[in-house]
Structure formats: C-alpha cells, structure tokens
C-alpha cells in the first residue's frame, strides 16, 4: 500500500506537468484552431527563464574579504554578488536562494511577449492552412528554439535548486496516520502539484467569471457570430495565445528543481502532452486536465518494480496503450466535443 501511495504521489507530480502543458495546448487549439507543436518549446523556454534569472542574480565582482585568509595570512579575494551590494548580504542571499519562485515574475511577461510574437509573426499565417502544415511549421519552430537554447546555454543539464527550506522531504505517511518514515516525499514535488492546481483553477476561473473569458469562450464556440457583434475576437485570441505561453512557461519554471533544464526537455514532454490532449478530447479544457492527471498516475503505477517484473517495459508504453483503448471506445476522447477536427 505504501508503494502504491508513493506512486500515486509521483503520478500527481507528472500529471501536473502534463496537465499544465496540455491546458495551454488546448487553449491554443480551442481559440485559434492551431495544432501547436512548438508548445513544448515554450515549456523549455520557461525553464530557461529560471536559469537566466538565477545567473543574473549571481552576477558578481571580486572583493577582498579581510575575514578570510590563505595559508600565508593574506586576505582572500572572493566573489560578491551585485545583489548583495544592493540589498545587503542577508537579503541578497535570500533573493538568490529563492530565484526559482521569483522567476515566475520574470517569466510571465517574457513568455506572454514570446507568445504574442509567435502568434502575430508566424502562426497567424497558418490559421486557414491544413493541420499538417501547422504541425510542420510549429515543429520546425520548436527545433529552431531548441537549437538557439543549446547554442547559448550548452547541451548539458543546468542544476537549478529549489530554495533551501524546500529541499528536504515530507513524512507523508506519518501525516496520514501511517508509520513514520514509510512514505517520504520531496517537499518541492508537493509544492509543484499545489502550484499546478492553483494555475489550473486560475485559468478556469478567468475563462468562466471574467467578461474577457466569457467572450473568448463564446468565440471558441462561434467565432463568426462574435465577430459580427463588433468584438475584435482576433485580438483576444492573440492575448489568449500569450496566456497559454505563460502557463507553459511558469510550468517550466517550477519544474526546474525536479528536472534540471536542458535544451530537449520540451520535446520530452511534447508528444506525451499531445497524447493527453487527444485522450482528454480535442478542444476540451477539463478533458485535458483530467487526462493529464489520469495518465500521469497510470504511468507511475506502471513503473512499480512488481508491474515491470510482470510485464517488462510496460511503463514505457502504458500511456499509448491507454490512449488506443480510449480512442477505440470513445473516438472523441474522454470529454471531446462533436465537430472538433471532424469533417
């Protein structure tokens, strides 16, 4: 039972990433009708926003520290971050330590800007083109972004740790009444799940309870009618593309302590996220979130040693097997709408 609970927690962790990326994919498809294969690259760019801010905060200059000496008694030269000069050593060190959460504030405007530039500069020209053309051009864009990141940041993963206070593990078993030290789970993974829940809830609340969101949902259902009412729906859809990019970006930011950023991390999540979208139902936001968590949990349960011993390699294909089964029985996915991507 403890192993199953641990794998469910792992599944919620993976499912959070799948759900956030799939949510952004579905927002773009539902509003613009574009199959965006560059969305995984936006997740990767968000992660490197965290890397960039961390490097900016640790920019330093050399000073002489009279309190430290070498073996000859001479004062040592040490690197002093500029942020320590501005805010003082204690606050400066705290800012550097909390660089990952602070990167959210940095990543949101950057990712919105990138999303708007992508939509206005490239993707708007493919709205009326076949989905195959959209896939090819956005996949090509993803490769270009990936190679740019590889050129500037290198090919190796870049460790980006969580704040010191969250680097430990939580005794989950003791918290739910089980024996102590049976289910130990990292704090940051629990925080990532909570963060994903907040972001998903915020997106749904924005679409449901704000005038902007209501107009967007109306445009998703009947774009022409909304346009005839004198509403510039194209402008609102462009903003939604930026919001979808920001969702993917902040998902990447918070994932950096779990998986060190590397230039191909977007591709690692992209295919699985599209499977999540298809299983949930093309154009269905609740379906994307539900499928993300369900498939994340199933993938984690299939990674248990007892399951792998019984069916070797099942953890590598379980998501695709479930996708095939669901699409055979429910061709539109779990919560797909009639008419979406149907001729």
Structural class designation: mainly alpha
Total number of domains: 1
Mean pLDDT: 85
Question: Helical amount among residues, as a percent range?
Answer: 55-70%
From the spread of the alpha carbons, the general shape counts as globular
Q: How large a portion of the residues is in β-strands, by DSSP E?
A: 5-15%
Q: State the end-to-end distance.
A: 47 Å
Radius of gyration: 23 Å
The helix/strand order is: HHEEHHHHEHEHHHHHHHH
- For the record, what CATH class applies? Mainly Alpha
Q: Specify the biggest β-sheet.
A: 2 strands, antiparallel
Low-confidence stretches: none
CATH topology: ABC transporter involved in vitamin B12 uptake, BtuC
Count of strand segments: 4
Specify the number of helices.
Answer: 15
GO cellular component, one term: plasma membrane
Transmembrane segments: 16-35, 42-64, 102-123, 190-216, 237-258, 270-298, 310-328
Family: Belongs to the binding-protein-dependent transport system permease family. LivHM subfamily.
GO molecular function: transmembrane transporter activity
